[in-house]
Amino acid sequence: MENKLNYITSDEISFYKSDGGLLMAKYKGEDIGRVAVLRMFPLQYAEEYLCVKVINYDRFDKETETGIIRDLKDFPEDAVRLVRAELERRYFVPDIIKVDEIKEQVGHILWKVTTNKGEREFTLTDMSSNIINLGGGQLLLTDVYGNRYRIPDISKLDDKTMQIIEIWI
After folding, report:
1. How far does Cα 25 stand from its chain's mean position?
2. Above 80 in pLDDT, residue 168?
3. Which helix (H) or strand (E) holds 80?
């Protein structure tokens, strides 16, 4: 059996919000219900190669892939707005602007930071596997709950922050 990628065009799918604010879709004229939109290459392509999956509440596997949006720019503005909002919700990754405090406590590293979305506190374990160097001075941190935080350019952090962070990186 041949596996073939199913690219979805704007002629085949349309998006809308449910009364409860969930992302819904119609595919080839049929209402397919609630959908999830996922980035296939989340670090490289923010709005290209997006996988659309139907959320099936009555099935064990819970999601069925509908297809792939090759590039969101090929869709009407209302669809772009809805999909971007869904992606922002799913891929919420605040940028760390300043590290206020880092301290070790019983094998955990507690971080107090200022982000572009406000002040946050989070905990990391195993710094070597939960801080990923993305290149170009970018770091991606993943806390114990799977939340991600990004340092967009480590060289642009203030001296106090650099002194705190250099101990751990």
Report:
1. 20
2. no
3. helix 77-90
Give strand pairing partners of 114: 98, 119
Token output for 51: 């996988």
Residue 70: its pLDDT value, please? 97
Contacts of 149 (CB under 8 A, 6+ apart): 93, 94, 95, 96, 113, 115, 120, 122, 140, 141, 142, 143
Q: Are 113 and 120 in contact (CB under 8 A)?
A: yes
What's the rounded Cα separation, in Å, for the pair 91 and 84?
10
Strand-by-strand arrangement of the 131-135 sheet: 131-135, 138-142, 148-151
In the block, residue with structure tokens 């799977």: 146
User: pLDDT tens across 70-129, in order?
Assistant: 999 999 999 999 999 999 888 888 999 999 988 888 888 899 999 999 999 999 987 778
Mean predicted lDDT score pLDDT of the chain: 89
- DSSP β-bridge partners for residue 149: 141
Q: How far apart, in whole angstroms, are the C-alpha atoms of residue 88 and residue 96?
A: 17
0.85 surpassed by pTM: no
| CB distance 54 to 35 below 8 Å | yes
